[in-house]
Design goal:
The protein is α+β, with helices and mostly antiparallel strands. Helices cover about 65% and strands about 10% of the residues. The chain has two domains: about 70 residues, lambda repressor-like DNA-binding domains (434 Repressor (Amino-terminal Domain), Orthogonal Bundle); about 110 residues, no CATH class. The radius of gyration is 24 Å and the shape is elongated.
Length: about 200
Amino acid sequence: MNQIKIGKFIASCRKEQGMTQAVLAEKLGISDRAISKWETGKAMPDSGIMLELCELLKINVNELLSGERIMAEAYDKRAEENLLAMRREVEKKNRQMLQTEYWIAIPAVIAGLIMVFMASFLEMPVWLRIALIVFALIMIFTVAFIAVGIEQKAGYYECQNCHHRYVPTYWQTNLAMHMGRTRYMKCPKCGKRSWQKKVLTKEE
């Protein structure tokens, strides 16, 4: 999707409806800074307010994602193109989130293990030894909880029995046995347990 083109289209439609950025922002319940980011191509409207935005601008979602008015005969083709583009965008964001998980978790775990090693083998007061070990463990567990939260939100887990893809709750993810990003969980659709792999998109 061309964010610059979409941004210019939003600005054009807004002006056609006689609204300033501030007025549109107020109707959507957001800041006019967000509208400015859309119109300059720095960000995209959140999916949660796309329908309301389209209603205010008197356009449809396909036109919004295309950045232009769509003739009736080209509507179906453009709709398919936009769905594919959105799927690629979601996949890209999920991949970036999972990479962030590694960038957060690996350095923290290494740093924590170094602290525990230092506390175990270097000469230091007992209170400092205890404090260092406690701090290292708190850091490792805190980062682990954050990393699981990122993993849970990025993408889906696929049941190996019925191949249903879904997002489990945070605690279902956190408490499940796992090997890397593959977790042993109960599928909400078929009710069977299996080692479920992390996938980036809802569709197979």
